[in-house]
Write a sequence for this structure.
């Protein structure tokens, strides 16, 4: 048998992925590279952006077929099976379980009016929804784009996977990127909408919250919200179950697992497979740029909504509420609350708004889940 | 969907979000009042302050609890010299953030204000 070296090399070349690679896939590999850079060097939400970026990279390698569904008796790709957790809404709900186990709702219970700020800060969702419709998206797509304004990654992924799965990668990347950019997006809007006098307001200390209140809280929220909006029961139910683990004090192992191992494992699966949906054919479209622009618009209006209601509360309470805590209603726990704290201290070094801002911040998580439930009831 | 329809959907959506959260706020307030009565009757002795809610002291030894008293977070005796509790809480949070070590794994013994004239 005579073997030609050239033939072997040619066969290896044609069996490899290089000849099948399109220019669009090369662009997507560059996009993945940029996202990896932002995650590692700039530290933009690295826990999510890094696996998302690597998912983008894996999905755009020709012939790897990691997202291929099973066909002709052959098993599908690894990421295809892992993606079923996103498709079926399992991962976002499990992430909410972990978030619930990590969240202290004490500041919210101490000042229930925080919930109003959490509601007002959903304004951007609906503004983006209207603008998206004007730009030619259908209602399901517009709702999925609007939810970026909730600044809540799992909720955005949950809703989009149900209403417009083809937009999932663009929406997930936009949502997490903007969450990382909150310290840059929010402060100019906060300063624009408030006066120096308002920013200087020192808020009175929060009252004591009993352990019993904290235990009853997740049960009440689950019953009220899930009865009103059954479509959001998976998210709110898991969020409150995690919180009950935490507050009950009798299932320490479950609480620790939910807020550490479980949420980390699910984050790997969720982020990698969401990234892997960003294939060139569906991602490299003008719509992606529109989604990124609309996401920014949604974040800006949500911030403005929270701050404006904060101003109203400032007036109604005779200057006892610092409007800066309103911007924390956009979820993005705890980064948005930190921004309120930083801006408050810039105006008045003796200002400690962090705990006051945590109330609207965790209220925003519930608010964005309710907004998602509304869209699901309407378009799901 | 027409522009007018989208406006209506958005207004309705905001109304739903506000209604649900106002209802929650109402239930939480009622709940707090009922449980407040229970606490007054001595049936609940597990109350604890949200960080930063205690009366400020500028010097002395204070017990500090950041979060729940269930072993999840740091707890113990912290000596504050020349600093109030708010400042101490901020310092602990900054140390945790900068060192990337969770507060639950840090133990603070003393936080002392340094006299800048020295």
């Amino acid at each position: 048998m005579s073997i030609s070296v050239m033939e072997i090399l040619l066969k290896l070349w044609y069996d490899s992925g290089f000849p099948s690679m399109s220019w669009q896939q090369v662009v997507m590999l560059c996009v993945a590279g940029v996202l990896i850079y932002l995650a590692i060097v700039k530290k933009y939400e690295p826990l999510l952006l890094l696996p998302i970026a690597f998912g983008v990279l894996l999905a755009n390698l020709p012939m790897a077929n990691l997202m291929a569904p099973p066909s002709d008796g052959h098993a599908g790709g690894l990421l295809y099976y892992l993606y079923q957790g996103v498709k079926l809404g399992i991962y976002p709900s499990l992430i909410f379980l972990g978030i619930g186990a990590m969240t202290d709702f004490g500041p919210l219970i101490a000042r229930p009016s925080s919930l109003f700020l959490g509601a007002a800060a959903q304004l951007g969702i609906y503004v983006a929804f209207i603008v998206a419709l004007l730009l030619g998206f259908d209602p399901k797509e517009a709702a999925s784009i609007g939810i970026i304004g909730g600044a809540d990654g799992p909720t955005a992924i949950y809703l989009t996977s149900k209403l417009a799965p083809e937009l999932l990668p663009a929406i997930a990347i936009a949502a997490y990127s903007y969450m990382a950019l909150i310290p840059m997006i929010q402060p100019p809007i906060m300063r624009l909408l408030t006066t120096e006098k308002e920013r200087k307001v020192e808020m009175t200390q929060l009252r004591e919250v009993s352990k019993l209140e904290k235990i009853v809280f997740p049960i009440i929220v689950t019953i009220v919200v899930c009865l009103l909006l059954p479509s959001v029961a998976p998210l709110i139910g898991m969020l409150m179950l995690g919180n009950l683990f935490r507050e009950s004090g009798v299932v320490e192992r479950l609480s620790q697992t939910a807020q550490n191992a479980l949420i980390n494992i699910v984050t790997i699966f969720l982020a990698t497979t969401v990234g892997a949906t960003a294939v060139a054919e569906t991602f490299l479209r003008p719509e992606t740029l529109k989604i990124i622009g609309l996401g920014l618009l949604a974040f800006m209006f949500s911030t403005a909504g929270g701050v404006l209601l904060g101003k109203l509360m400032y007036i109604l309470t005779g200057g006892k509420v610092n409007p800066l805590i309103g911007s924390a209603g956009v979820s993005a726990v705890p980064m948005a609350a930190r921004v309120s704290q930083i801006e408050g201290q810039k105006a008045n070094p003796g200002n400690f708004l962090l705990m006051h801002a945590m109330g609207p911040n965790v209220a925003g998580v519930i608010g964005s889940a309710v907004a998602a439930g509304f869209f699901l009831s309407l378009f799901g | 969907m027409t522009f007018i329809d989208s406006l209506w959907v958005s207004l309705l959506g905001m109304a739903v979000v506000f209604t649900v959260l106002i209802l929650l706020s109402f239930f939480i307030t009622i709940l707090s009042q009922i449980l407040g009565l229970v606490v007054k009757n001595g049936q609940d002795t597990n109350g604890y302050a949200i960080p930063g809610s205690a009366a400020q002291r500028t010097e002395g030894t204070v017990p500090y609890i950041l979060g729940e008293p269930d072993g999840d977070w740091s707890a113990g005796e912290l000596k504050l010299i020349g600093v109030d509790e708010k400042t101490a809480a901020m310092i602990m949070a900054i140390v945790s953030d900068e060192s990337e070590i969770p507060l639950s794994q840090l133990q603070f013994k003393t936080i002392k204000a340094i006299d800048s004239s020295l």
About this structure: Residues 89-270+280-379 of chain A form one domain. The first helix of chain A runs from residue 5 to 15.
